Amino acid sequence: MKTVLTIAGSDSSGGAGIQADLKTFAALGVYGTCAITAVTAQDSQGVHAIHELPPELVAAQIDAVVRDIGVDAVKTGMLASADIVRTVAAKVREHRLPNLVVDPVLAAKSGHRLLSEDGLAALKGELLPLCAVATPNIPEAEALVGRPLRTDDDLERAAREIADLGAKAVVITGGHGSGPEAVDLLYDGREFRRFSTPRLTTRHGRGSGCTFASAIAAGLARGLSVEQAVAQAKEYVTAALERAFAVGKGPGPLHHFYRWWKG
User: Model confidence over 38-74: pLDDT tens digits?
Assistant: First the structure.
């Protein structure tokens, strides 16, 4: 059994974060472990409170998983602070953790900030250079390169710049884009490939970014190439989003287990 470690925040509503990651791992046939970086009081309508865990406790969780269970791939999500980013980067280097997928989570779907400004700088300087794949959405890519991205050429240039920070491959996801197609742009350091599906009109879909990055990590753990892992992730997220359902008063989550039961 392949194992994937997620290092991210906890979503008390179960729609995103650690909870979405672990559901994705289970659905895609890998064993999920976790190191929690922050606990959030969160529901379908927003984030109401955040408690960051001490960096040394984040480190201890990673050490415990590596020592006993092992790691075939790693996915990072909400890292909250520069100290936690630096701690995670140090543990990736210390344990030589493979197949690192970095989802540069900056804000919740509701707009609540989930990574400090100095945390973003640390992510660019210390964590991205260690990763196999970075998975920013368009607003996150804009924050990483420091300018608006409006055209296909803008996105390609941004992907190259993010790769120049050290990421071996970059996927800029297209969920925040416009037009009839949702296009994810993959740059592997040499060439581009686009993964396109019809854009879905739905108010649901909380945790789609977490799920996409986790699905890539699951694919890498199982021996897929980056291109194959991205294709699998695109297919899985699209199907789970098509079957997303209402939970609570706000946007509902993806249906991670659509293959086994109806929402």
Answer: 999 999 888 999 999 999 999 999 999 999 999 999 9
- What CATH number does residue 201 fall under? 3.40.1190.20
Question: Following DSSP, what letter does each residue of 203-233 receive, concatenated?
Answer: S--BTHHHHHHHHHHHHHHTT--HHHHHHHH
Task: For residue 243, give both structure tokens.
Answer: 């079957």
**Is residue 119 included in any domain, yes or no?**
yes
Domain for residue 255, yes or no?
no
Report helix, strand or coil for 197. Answer: strand
Domain that holds residue 82: 3-242
What does the mean pLDDT of the chain come to? 93
Distances, alpha carbon 130 to alpha carbons 2, 85, 209, 242, in Å: 21, 12, 20, 33
Tokens of 139: 């607003």
Measure the CA–CA gap between 195 and 186, rounded to whole angstroms.
8
Beta bridge partners of 107: 113
114's tokens: 């989930």
Whether the full predicted model's pTM is greater than 0.85, yes or no, is: yes
Joined together, the tokens standing for residue 180 give 């009839």
* AA letter at 55: P
